[in-house]
Amino acid sequence: MRTGTVKSSIGLGSLLWAGIGDTVRVSLSAEPEEEVRVGFEMLKALGLRHRGVNIISCPSCARQQYDVIRTVEALEKRVGHITTPMTVSVIGCVVNGPGEARETDIGFTGGGANNHQVYVAGVPHHRLKDGNVVDHLVALIEKKAAEIEAAKAADEQRHRTAAE
Asked: What is the dotted CATH code of the domain comprising 50-164?
């Protein structure tokens, strides 16, 4: 499946990036749902379609203050049901974390002694001492998605009322 994802990403991504085409068909040796997920991820990465949570994370390195890889894996599974477009950064250290968090709706940066920083709308919001990082982030993401959807519904209602 990984090979098919890479080949599809290169082939389709370069065409879409150049503005060629408006249909995506990913073929993988996997369930059809996985093909759809890969297609949406390609469109998200190219900035052509925004659906769901776009998680920005760092590669593993010696500065990480928690297990970023397992955290991101679990987080992707837990927020897969959310279709509201938003960006979340999950960074392992305080070197790169604040800069990434500044550009995201919700940010999480690992800190020493299990004392992590949570950002909302790009600014430091609160610290998380130990605790379950994934559960905490899922709750924040679901709350933010609900806020975004409520604001969108209110805006649509205002436009309908103004049009009447």
From this structure: 3.30.413.10
